[in-house]
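subagent[fold] <- orchestrator: predict structure for attached chain, return tokens only, no commentary.
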Amino acid sequence: ITRAVKAKGFSRDISLLRALGETLLGDGLSILLIIVTSWKGNGNALINNLLSEAQIINTTSPNIRLKIINEFHWPANAEPGSRPTALSRYDLHRATDISLGLSTYDTFAISPLEPISCGAICVISSGCGCARRLQKLDGYKANVLIADYGARLLEIVDAKEDWTKLFEITHRQKAMLEENATGAIAAELSKLVPRTEEQRHVALERGINLAKQMDWDKEITRAFIPILEDLFSQNSL
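subagent[fold] -> orchestrator:
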């Protein structure tokens, strides 16, 4: 569920969908990836690429399907030309096993984490602003997977002494880096995906406990209020 902008990393979503599909094929499991966004008219190049990818995947892949929804508030609101669903966003979260947020860059961005209280495995990138905070939560690894694409940079460039060398990375090198990272992420994610109702129940309990640690009141008390107090203290001097 996200805006249709390049930084949201849709190409990463699709690459992970393909890799995870191959990993789970041997277990007889199928995947439906739903990308909920919004556009007007025929959409831009990003939307057209997504729709093209969906057509290719849905006609050639044995166990993966991709659906692009043109209604940011779906399923509460039906997309143009479709019948009402009579479902809520909560219903969608309950039906979600995996939530993706593989942004190349993002703010605190907790929307990919919304289904966590319903037991979903939430996959975000290290480029998401909440990644560092999540790593401080007790037991986060059970329901959260942080994909660190940048951790493999040293495989293709030595920038320890000169960070400007990062700008010498070619598009092909970047594509290979992300492809290799995606394979590792898919392998790790396949271990977390619940196979049985009992495993889903355990994931639900873990997700609820994690969600309690991410209460906005606690976040404001822990991080924002101390900043304000420090500012007021400096001004009083």
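orchestrator: received. Logging for downstream: The longest strand covers residues 31-37. The chain is about 45% helix and 10% strand.
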